[in-house]
Design a protein that fits this description.
The structure is a single chain. By secondary structure, the chain is an all-alpha fold. Helices cover 46% and strands 0% of the residues. The protein is elongated and about 40 Å long. The mean pLDDT is 77. InterPro entries: NAD(P)-bd_dom_sf (IPR036291), SDR_fam (IPR002347). It comes from Sphingomonas naphthae.
Length: 54
Amino acid sequence: MWIAMCCRRRWRAGGPPGRYAKPGEVAAQIGFLLSDACATVTGATFSIDGGYSL
């Protein structure tokens, strides 16, 4: 149990923000997906949920 708590704290400290994305952050992701910078990305899933799906 202690190991799980330790790992969870370490993951939260350096991991995802633990909040849902703001509208501007979602718009930035959509902008990237529509841009030429994303031309070589195929078959990928991008989660912008603040790490809740992990």
